[in-house]
Structure formats: C-alpha cells, structure tokens
Amino acid sequence: xxxxxxxxxxxxxxxxxxxxxxxxxxxxxxxxxxxxxxxxxxxxxxxxxxxxxxxxxxxxxxxxxxxxxxxxxxxxxxxxxxxxxxxxxxxxxxxxxxxxxxxxxxxxxxxxxxxxxxxxxxxxxxxxxxxxxxxxxxxxxxxxxxxxxxxxxxxxxxxxxxxxxxxxxxxxxxxxxxxxxxxxxxxxxxxxxxxxxxxxxxxxxxxxxxxxxxxxxxxxxxxxxxxxxxxxxxxxxxxxxxxxxxxxxxxxxxxxxxxxxxxxxxxxxxxxxxxxxxxxxxxxxxxxxxxxxxxxxxxxxxxxxxxxxxxxxxxxxxxxxxxxxxxxxxxxxxxxxxxxxxxxxxxxxxxxxxxxxxxxxxxxxxxxxxxxxxxxxxxxxxxxxxxxxxxxxxxxxxxxxxxxxxxxxxxxxxxxxxxxxxxxxxxxxxxxxxxxxxxxxxxxxxxxxxxxxxxxxxxxxxxxxxxxxxxxxxxxxxxxxxxxxxxxxxxxxxxxxxxxxxxxxxxxxxxxxxxxxxxxxxxxxxxxxxxxxxxxxxxxxxxxxxxxxxxxxxxxxxxxxxxxxxxxxxxxxxxxxxxxxxxxxxxxxxxxxxxxxxxxxxxxxxxxxxxxxxxxxxxxxxxxxxxxxxxxxxxxxxxxxxxxxxxxxxxxxxxxxxxxxxxxxxxxxxxxxxxxxxxxxxxxxxxxxxxxxxxxxxxxxxxxxxxxxxxxxxxxxxxxxxxxxxxxxxxxxxxxxxxxxxxxxxxxxxxxxxxxxxxxxxxxxxxxxxxxxxxxxxxxxxxxxxxxxxxxxxxxxxxxxxxxxxxxxxxxxxxxxxxxxxxxxxxxxxxxxxxxxxxxxxxxxxxxxxxxxxxxxxxxxxxxxxxxxxxxxxxxxxxxxxxxxxxxxxxxxxxxxxxxxxxxxxxxxxxxxxxxxxxxxxxxxxxxxxxxxxxxxxxxxxxxxxxxxxxxxxxxxxxxxxxxxxxxxxxxxxxxxxxxxxxxxxxxxxxxxxxxxxxxxxxxxxxxxxxxxxxxxxxxxxxxxxxxxxxxxxxxxxxxxxxxxxxxxxxxxxxxxxxxxxxxxxxxxxxxxxxxxxxxxxxxxxxxxxxxxxxxxxxxxxxxxxxxxxxxxxxxxxxxxxxxxxxxxxxxxxxxxxxxxxxxxxxxxxxxxxxxxxxxxxxxxxxxxxxxxxxxxxxxxxxxxxxxxxxxxxxxxxxxxxxxxxxxxxxxxxxxxxxxxxxxxxxxxxxxxxxxxxxxxxxxxxxxxxxxxxxxxxxxxxxxxxxxxxx
Length: 1271
Description:
Immunoglobulin-like; single chain; seven-stranded mixed β-sheet; eleven-stranded mixed beta barrel; about 50% strand; extended; mainly beta
C-alpha cells in the first residue's frame, strides 16, 4: 500500500517517489457539510547521471563533447574536474552545455586525462568519469642513416618515431614493402645479415598511427659494394720458348676492380713483349725461359681484394747442372756418383754401366735424386758409367769412369804341424800366403804375419782317481711300514786323468728305515637296503644302516652317521578324476567343427604313468585327417591327471581342474593353429569337464595311411601368480615323412591355489598312438603321461629371467634388450622370432635378412636392349650399355671402357681414352698414320717454318740456326744481340744506351722517375699505371711528379711501400672511441655496451634500456618496477592501514574522512606517501646533490614553507638533507658505492606563512640505485 490514511485523518506516504510530487486535497465531510484544504508536496530526488561511454579518443586539433545528462530534483548543479583539478567554466577552451556536457575546443596532447562530471543538489551528489585520450600524429625522431658497406656484411637500419598512440613502423625497400618484425615502443630496427646486392637501394621508414590516419616517412640509401670475384681465373700453362701465352683474368665486382699482375710476388713490368689487355688478361709474346714463374692476378676495389695465380712453365730440353766425376776407390768402400739435370718437363734420369741399364738392387742403388750409390765396391764394379737425361724435347748423357784399388789379402791358414811333446804341453805352427787376392792397382800388401805359433797337448800325463767323502743320508722313502734311504760319493779326490785308473767300489749306499707299523683309520661297511616306506602315500619315511670297522695302530675313528632316513611316497593320497568329457567347436583348414565331443578314461599304471584313452566323436569327414596328429587336443586331460613324480604337481593338484589354457601350434611349413581349453572342474560323478575352441590351419597331408607320433616332453614354467607357460618341440611322421612342429601354452588359474613346487616342471609322454575310425566318424588317441621336476628345476630356462623377489620366471624381451634381428623382431614367451620385408629372405641363422637376387633367380624378362638390375629388396629393368661402355661394379651406371689400359698396343706413341672410344696421337715432330702408327714430320717443309731463319730437319724434330749478329733463342727465333744490355756499348755514365737492330746509339739520361719521349723530352713516369711501382697488392698506388706513394684504405696502415696494408687497431691507438667497450674489426671498429644498455645513435654512447616500459614488466600488486641503469627490480610500495592508493599517481594517501585522523584545516589528505626512484651512474663523489624534493598540495601548488627530515636512513650509508627555498636536497658526505642500492625515507611538513600550523604532510620513500658504470 503506497498511501495510508491515519486515524487522525492525516495521509502517510511511507516511501515517497518522484511521482508523488503534486497538490493533495484533504476533504472532511459529515451530514452537516464538507470542507477542503490543499497541500503541495515536493519530493527532492538526488541527482543521477545517465550512463554514457567512459572513454573518448580524439586526435590533436579536433574538438570533443563529453556528455553529462543528469536528472534530479531540484535541478542539480553541474561541475567538471580534470585530473582532480577544477575546470573554470570561464575558460574559453571549455564550453559547458545546458545539459551538463562539456565541449573541449582545439584538442592538444596535454588534454589527455580523467574528466569527472559532478551533479549536486540538496538531496545528494552523483559523479561519473570520462577518460579522454588524445591521439598525436606520428613524428620521426630518429631517421635511418645512409650506409655504404660491402656484400655479405651485416648492417642495421634504425628508425624511431613518437606519437600517441605509439606509432607502428613499417619499412619499404625501393618502394616495395619489407617483411619486418613489429616495432616496439615506436622503435624499429632492420637487421640484414650477409647482405646481398639486392639488399641495396632506398630504405623508407613509414610511421603511422590512428591520429587522423596520418603517416610520415624518412628515407636512407644503402650502397652495397661487391668485392672482386674471379669469374675466369688464369689457368696453369706449360709452353715452349718463343710461343705466346694469354693469362685470362676475368673479374667481377662493384665498383669495377682495378687489376694488377705480379710475377713471383713482384709487379710485372709491362713492355712491348708483355702487355695487359683491356679485360685485365696478361699476354706474353715470344716466351723466354725467364718468363717461367708464378703469376698472380690481383683485383682491388673499395670493397676488398681478390687474387688468383697461374703457374707458367717454359718447356726446355734436358741440360746437366751437376755432372759425375771419375772415381778411384778401394774394394769394400762406398762410392757415390751425383748427376743432376734440368729441363721442362722434368727429365727422366737413368744410368748405364757400359751398355747395360742399371736396375736398383743389392749393392747398387739409384737414389731418388738420381745419384748412383755402390756399396761395398768390388773389383768387378770398375768400368764406364753413363748418366742419361731425357724428356719429350730431347735426350743427352754424360760419362764417368770407376777404378777399384785392390789390397792384398791372405789365404786361409794351412794345417798345424805335429805337437813337439807326446804328453803334456808342447809347440806347433801353421802358414798362409798373400794371394787371395794379390795387391793390384797400387794396392797395399797383406797385413800381418804369414806364420803363426801356438802351444799344444796331445794327452795329459796319467793320474789315478780317488773317492770323495760320503754325502749325508736322503730322507726315508716311507714314514712307516719299512722304507729305504740312500747316500752317495764321487770319484773326484782327485779325478782320474790321462791313462790313470778310475776309483774302485760303488758310488751309492742303501739301508732300511722306519720299519714300525702304519696306523689304519676306521671305515664304514656298505649301506644296507632301504626299509619299507612307513606310508603308502602322503609322505612317509624309510631307513638304512651301516657299521664302522675299528681303527688300528692309532688310526682315526669313523666319521658320519650309522643310520640314514629318507622321505618316500610323497604322492598325495587324493583321488584323480578317472573320466573326462568335453566339447570341440571351431574350424580347421576352413572346415567347420560344430558338435564334436571328446570322451576320455584316465588309468593309473604301475610303471609311474597315467594312461589316457580318448575318442573324438562326431568328427566332420573333411576334418578327420587333420585331427590325426593333433593329440594335444587332450592336453587339458593328460596334464590334469599326469602321474606326479618327486613332489611335482599335475594340473589337478595345482588348479583343482579349473583353468584356461591358450595354445598355439606352429608347423615348420608355416601353418598356425590356435586352441582355447576351458577346464570347468570335476562334477559330482568325478568326471573332468572341459570345452575346446579350435581355429586355424594345419598341413594338408592328403590321405594319411600311417601316422607315427614320437614321444615328447613339455616344460611348464611358473611365470607369475596363477600363470604357467608351457612349451614343447615335437616330431610327426606321416607315411615315412617327418614334420617338426612346436607347441606353446599359456595357462591361467585361480592364484589362491598357490604355485608349482618347482620353478620348472617337465611332463613326459610315451606310447602315443592314433586311430582314424572313419565309419564311426571318430578319432581315437592313446598316450601315457607323467610329470616331475624340470632339469634343472630351480633355474629359469633360456629366454626367461628369474624374479628373485617373487620367485617367478619372467619373460626376457630379447627384442628390446638384445635387438638380435637385422630387420623386424617379434617377442614371444621365452623366445623371439625374426622376419624380413618383401624382397628379402631370412638366412639360416634365423636372424639376418638377405636381399633376394631376383635377376639370378627369375632370369631377365626385361625385353630387348634392357638388363635386369638387382636392387635392395627388388629389381629394375635398365638400358643395356652401348659399345665402349661396361656396367660398373655393384651399380646401374654404364662406365667408359679405358681401351688404352686394356689394349696397350692400340697406339704407337700416345693413347687418349675418350667417352665410349679412344684416340691415338703422336709425339711432337711426328704425324698420325693408319692403325695408330706415327711417322716423322719434316717441319722445315711446312708452310709456316718453325725457324725464323735457317731450318734443318731431324727425326722427330728440327734444328734452327742464325746469321752473324743474332742470337738463337730456344732453338727457334733469332734475336738481335742487345749490346746495351749484354755489354759492348761505349755510352757514358750520364748517357743511355738505345739498342738498334744490329747496333746501338747513346742519348742523354733523364732524372729518376722520368722517361724520354719520342721527341727527346723527359716525361714523368706514371709508375702506378705502368705497374712500375713497389706497392703491395693491397696498397693503392698514387702517382706523383717523378715518384709515387703507396696508400692504404681507410682503417688500414702499412710500414711503407711494398709492405702489406694491415688492419689498424683503432681501439688501442685512440682513446675514448667508445663509451664502454671498443672491439677492433677489419678496417674499422665497433662499440658495444654492457647488458641492460643499448648503443646510442651516435654509435659511441651507451643508453640505458628501460625494461619496465619496453618489456612491460608487471611486478604484481603492491609493487612497482624500478628501472635501474643496466637492469631493473621490483620494489615494494605497500600502503599502510587507513591509506588508499591514488589510481592516477599510485601514491598512498591518508584521506581526511575520519574524525580520528588529525588533518590540517582545509586539507584533503593528512599524509601522502610518494615513491621516488633515482638511477645514478657510477662514480658519484661525496657531497654531491642527488635529488631535490618539492612538496605540493592537492591543488598542485608548490608549498614553499616546507621542512624536510630523514626519518629512516639507509643501513649502509648515511644520507643528509639541506633545505633551499623550500626544497629538500639529498646528499651524502661519503662517495656512493658502485653497483649498490639504497633506501631512505624523508618526511616533508608544509606550514603556513607564519610557520605555526601544518598545512600539508608528504612522506617520500626514495630508492636509489648506482650503476657499475659511469653512465
């Protein structure tokens, strides 16, 4: 109910609303009449500012209207503030409309801020903020610079722009956009590594932001110079004298390189005979032997140098440099004949003795330097020796003679004369002659006597022998029961000599010893037979006995027991099931088996086996043959009831007849058959119940007449709780043919039944037979089975590893641990198998795959003109090889047949192998005839005679001669004798000799550095262009009047002309090139800065990187990013209790909103905590002003009457304050330490002009960091 009428007649409105405003009429009436009174109700409504956009974005120069539509009663008064400062409506920049909106004219960057509209009436106030962001058009502050560099260099193009929002910078190259990373904070850098020629051109930096969609550009040019590159380098040449050679030197580069030539590292002197072509190639006419050298083509431009060399070899006929001399040596000495020849090509050297060529061997050796060495010279070595030198231009030889001096040598000694005495000592002699050999060629006579004397003895004079004393007795041969001992003496006191008599008597004596009796130890008799077992089953005992025979002569008594007890009849006394029934379903060789059954009887035998007789009934006729050899269908029967030996468990003892058995049969012919046996326990009649599911393939052996199943064994291995693995290898004989096959089984049962008593048990079978009952559609099996401990029973078989903790045999994954197969490995329980991909065959080792050679096995069916090529795992048909080609070994390519090597008689002189053929050629001076034969060419009759004057033909060559006044060069060209050079001129010292054809004349000399012109004037020699300078190849030759100088490129220096230009280390030669670190580079240097700094645009200074801004560091709440020089840190800026965080300044303010907070009169804040940071360079001295603190009130007015106090100083260093004009200046009395941080707290209290009352308080928390570097 909105209106309530009171008992007094009044009207109550519990919750007034704006629509309740109006005139209300109170009417009172009774039977006597009525009366009325009107009342006016005015409901005052607090102002509400309608919601509008909270953010406005404009550009510089625009105008904007910020809405402030307000409702309220009475009409609210509207006021605006900007960043907490009141906006004067009289300011022409601002227009406040009747609806409360404010329009800002002629926007500039400083108008960005938070504008707050406040509506106020007597009922309340409301305010809303409008954030104005002013966009400033972009302005490029750091334009890119022009660059000039060499190809493959690295360079950067930097561009920085400012504006609001931060401009995005893109790049263009030659008017085409470049893909560059996004700019960061208005800065963009292009880094070009390994600059190519296409990287040159005009780079344009484009800065754009949304401010009126304006963009500005800045341009810079990049010139990339290309160092010289040899396009066609000069090759090596081997030419004859008087021929011409052209050394090519085609060079590319930008700018065009200058080409220089050197000969053996010295500049080439150009003249009429040696000329340089316009393309840089060097031409040498009329070659002489002095032209043989190493030539270098050197290309130079501003970007670098490049060079290539050519070795010019001038062919010449052999000439001897060292000739052997005649030698006279003694027999036995070593003689050496030196023989050295020169010529181009290098001559072939060899030796003759008389008319026979010498072959190295034994005492005679031709050394590597062609010297002839004869070791232990003999008389037969004397004679004439010839040293030959031969090359294609000629052959020559030199002779020497060897004489051997022979000294006399004695013959062997003759026989000795008879001794002068018949016994005892006498004399004798012997003789020799000096004729083996006799002295010859001035040799010396024999050295030594020709007669030799010595003493002799025919026999000793007689002495009779006498015995020495007896030696001591040897040990007795027995310790008891009678033995012997011996002693001896020798006939040596003295021994008999000559014809003296020997000693009389024996040299050995024997006597008896230790005749007392030997002790005999007591021994046991043989064991008696075992007694009967105390139990017939369930583990009884049996005994046997023996007696001890007593010892004699102190022997030892018997050691051991007289009685031995052994367990017996360990077989459990339980009763095995004697019958079994089961079902067989599935398929075999695609023949379905639907409703076959198995009926079996199990009969214990006295021979320790259980006999199993079983019949498979209702067998499909098509499957009957396949079941004849599958006697392991009965596995769930004979394993369950096998006779137990030595404590082993059969399947019934282990599982109580309840288990699942998975079986896999693998035949040697590749077929695989799988079966699942489900044993369901024993029914109330004692019948074992089971089901068999069969599926897979067996060998199709046709009509089987006779099947023989060999006995087999199965190993049962405990692989885990309730799991047993079994395996066996078996042999099947069908109609005389044997077929091996393997079975493996995995049995699972209730693990609470326990485990086998042994790790490994072995089941053995015997008396196996099978009978096919065709008329009854049945197959009958018979076998006997027993089970006992494995051999060994306590060790896991190969392929398993023992789990000692749980005492199981775990499968060993050979594929993972051994990687035995060459291709694919398949692990299985206790074993593994290998397989091969298509095109490969598994080898007999069952591990290795070998490629199948389809070409040899299948023959070639590739068709005509094609061959079969075997490949790894396959084969291909390829084209046959053409004539002159053959197939390369183990390859598919046809390779050329080298007829020159395979048929040595193809050519008479030189054979050159060609692709698919060969070519014969003849030595110089011969011409090629039919069948590769060569005949002499008469060079003198050729149209172009090889001789400049007179020519005489010789076999294979020719001989040239010259008239008087000329000199024959290299056997072909007649050259005028240069009297000026070779001597014979009579010019004075101040004159120059000029050679003429056949004569000469003298002219006045020019000063050094000048040459005479045809007019007779002396003209400056341009040593640089004429290549007469001595500048090193990387020096630049500058011609001067009468001389020249050698300069180096910028950044290089040299010790003078002819010395190489080496890099100048500007960093060590000049100080203060870089503010931090200077690194020398080839031809220049580069400045680098420490981490946290970047190199400034002046390439000298290091500028701190503001990580807080550039990396947008977010330190989290109650923290602030403090940018330090070279680094940054996050500092705590918590606000104390009752303080609030100012969202604009991030200061902590204590607002005067609580009467308990002591606030100065008229102040908005009782305290303001400002956080100040200052990052200083290193090297700050003592008493240096560090920071000036100024206090402002909430109206941003400077408070001059302010006192400053350090209320918390740094723990490491004391900071001090002084006040100047109301500002607090922080300083220290000690130097600041580099790489340090400090923290102080300063309180500023501002007073009125009479310094009586505090008007404002500010607390400054100051963080100071000092860099490790002075910048």
